[in-house]
Amino acid sequence: MPNISGPIKDRKLNQFDLFFAFIFIFILLVAIVICIIIEKYADKTNLEGKILFTIVLFAFLCDRLMVVKKHLTKHINVPYSNRKNTIKNYIKRNNVKYLPEFDKPIKENPHINFFYPKENISFNDVFIEEINNDTCYIGDLEWSTYEVETQYNYEIDNKKYFSSDKGVHYRESKKVIKHETKHLVTMCVLFDDSFSLPDFQIRYETLKDKILDYLDQNDVKDIDFSSDKAFSDKWLLSTNESENIVRDLFNQNIRSCFMKIDNKEYIICARRNMFYIIILTPVGPEKYYSIAKDLVVIRDFLKNNKKYYKVKKQ
């Protein structure tokens, strides 16, 4: 699958957020300044106060270190087996329309490429949500990644296979272990043949995006509108096609509608007749209906540009 350039590309699962790095550095600098001031102006005979202050400061810094460590090591995927059990239990308790697997979105949009090189991408555990006369499919977009571990074992042997510097003869054996890791995000999909849209991806613009833009280090090309600063500051919009076509699609009416969206977790995408929302942290099935409703509303926003929307005759 070819790589794509879009808002999804830079959202790697364990990527360090610059915002947290700057906060931690700021705390360290403040701590250093405070220590200098205390050393200069504090009563040098007040040893107990200094010790107490040092303990409090050390405890605070340890707390911040734990927060940063948690952020560095957190994984957006819930344990895979737990996820499957949650879905099975929800199906047992509720009368739902359910598909174990649905491959149409993958076939319709074969360029999907999110985080890692992946194998056997699939759209599984799919729930069917009916919103008025629209059918939305929402479930887990799944793929696997693999890490190869090579283990070496050395056994002393009377026969001369290899010889170490100390003259000990040994036999070397090698075992290759392939570790599989499952990844998933929540995806909600809607098809509407009345549309013929250019490819676009849009999500909330974060502080990290702004810093990377300032440093000219952002891999994502943000499409801004000089006449609409509010929209440009709120949203990061990109495409794999012509930027001018996407600008033409996002007219004033559509941009005004998008300003009403408040969910910062959504990555909203469209291509031809396909609309979909990606949520990086997988959500529970009890939230699927509200996400599907939001996708239908977003689809309706895009009807405000008739150039890309034409009702099909029955």
Task: Outline the structure in words.
It is a single chain. With 314 residues, this protein is an alpha+beta fold. The chain has a domain at 145-182. The chain contains 9 helices and 9 strands. Strands 1, 2, 3, 4, 5, 6, 7, 8 and 9 form a 9-stranded antiparallel beta sheet that branches. It is extended and about 80 Å long.
From the N-terminal CA to the C-terminal CA, the straight-line distance is 36 Å
Helix percentage: 25-40%
In terms of quaternary structure, what is this? single chain
Radius of gyration: 27 Å
Q: Give the rounded overall mean pLDDT.
A: 78
Number of strands: 9
Let me know the largest β-sheet: 9 strands, antiparallel
Structural class: alpha+beta
Unreliable stretches, pLDDT < 50, 5 or more residues? 1-16, 71-77
Q: What's the total helix number?
A: 9
Overall geometry: extended
Chart the SSEs and their pairings.
Elements: H1 18-41, H2 47-73, H3 80-93, E1 97-101, H4 104-108, E2 119-131, E3 134-156, E4 162-163, E5 169-191, E6 197-204, H5 207-214, H6 229-234, E7 235-238, H7 243-249, H8 252-258, E8 266-272, E9 274-279, H9 288-301
Antiparallel strand pairs: 1-2, 2-3, 3-5, 4-5, 5-9, 6-7, 6-8, 8-9
Short structural description:
The chain is an alpha+beta fold. It has helices spanning 18-41, 47-73, 80-93, 104-108, 207-214, 229-234, 243-249, 252-258, 288-301, and strands at residues 97-101, 119-131, 134-156, 162-163, 169-191, 197-204, 235-238, 266-272, 274-279.
